[in-house]
Amino acid sequence: MPPQDVAEKAPPHSRHRPVAMVAPAVPLTLDGASVLHQMFRVRWPNWRKLLDGQRRRIIDEASAAFTAMESHPDGGSALFSQLGHKGDLFVVHFRRSFDALNEAELQLAHLELDEYLEPTHSYVSVVELGLYESSVQLYEALLEKGIEPGSPEWIQAEQEKIEESSKAMALRLWPEIPPHRYLCFYPMDKKRGEVNNWYEVPIQERRRMMRDHGLIGRRYAGKVKQIISGSIGFDNWEWGVDLFADDPLQFKQLIYEMRFDEASAKYALFGEFYVGLRFQAADLGTFLAGKTPPYEPPKAERKPAGVPN
User: What are phi and psi of 13, to 5 degrees?
Assistant: First the structure.
């Protein structure tokens, strides 16, 4: 029977029944600093063939460039000696834009040292803060007032919430790279399988799970600094996770505990893990001499100049 016949035969009282408004499935998010992770393998045989004077010249040039990157006013860069076979040198950049990230990448590529570095991996993302709690509260309040999702009034209310939250969380959106000795980085997705599909779960349930998930992280406050960056549309995974600590065992304990959390146990997929020991650009020569560089964290963190006015 054609659809129009169905409508014509429907009971009169049901023909103009209003459709119930439903909260959007997508939570609001805040976006901040642009992030680039670069992993390299040092071509050690080629490096060792150089004369002492050649190595010294290359180290001096690279150390000067990396020192300037470390103190970049819009987030900075950091060097890590990478553990395991996945690479040797791990470089992380925080900047205000992709343009600035590209500048840092090209600057590194034009160093003479680059002839002795083989890229093994990279990751592009943007610092992201999810607003599950605020989103559900806002959506429910707007629906209660009879404001339709997608209407001008709805869009304006969302924009006001984003602007308000961005100001309140500016230091988290535009951070400096934490000064801790150890870094653990890994990418992750939320499952979209036939059985467990995160994106089909009602937003209220996702809010509850993310709230419980966050409570675990708070128990590691002061031990682990976590920075989440969104990479949907930028790289092969949906998020990148950076964990910084002065005791690497904290990474194992935190991630193990989160394995039992519902949001992780049922819906999380994880990529490869990368671990490194931070060192300062001034100690690049020590690293390239095959020794573990020392590391003395800054006495105090600089005010994040990357925060927009």
Answer: -70, -15
Which is the catalytic residue, given 182, 186, 220, 267? 186
Residue 237 corresponds to which amino acid?
Answer: W
Q: What is the DSSP letter of 304?
A: -
pLDDT one-digit tens code per residue, 194-252: 899 999 999 999 999 999 999 999 999 999 999 999 999 999 999 999 999 999 999 99
Domain 31-127 in this protein, CATH class:
alpha beta
Quote the tokens at residue 157. 């209310």
- Give the pTM: 0.89
Of 3.40.50.1370, 1.25.40.10, 3.30.70.1030, 3.30.450.20, the CATH number of 129-277 is 3.30.70.1030
75 with 94: CB under 8 angstroms? yes
Of 297, 303, 78, 302, nearest to 170 (Cα)? 303
pLDDT in tens, 63-78: 999 999 999 999 999 9
Residues composing the chain: 309
Q: Assess whether 139 carries a catalytic annotation.
A: no
Coil, helix or strand at residue 197: strand
- Residue 109: Cβ within 10 Å count: 12
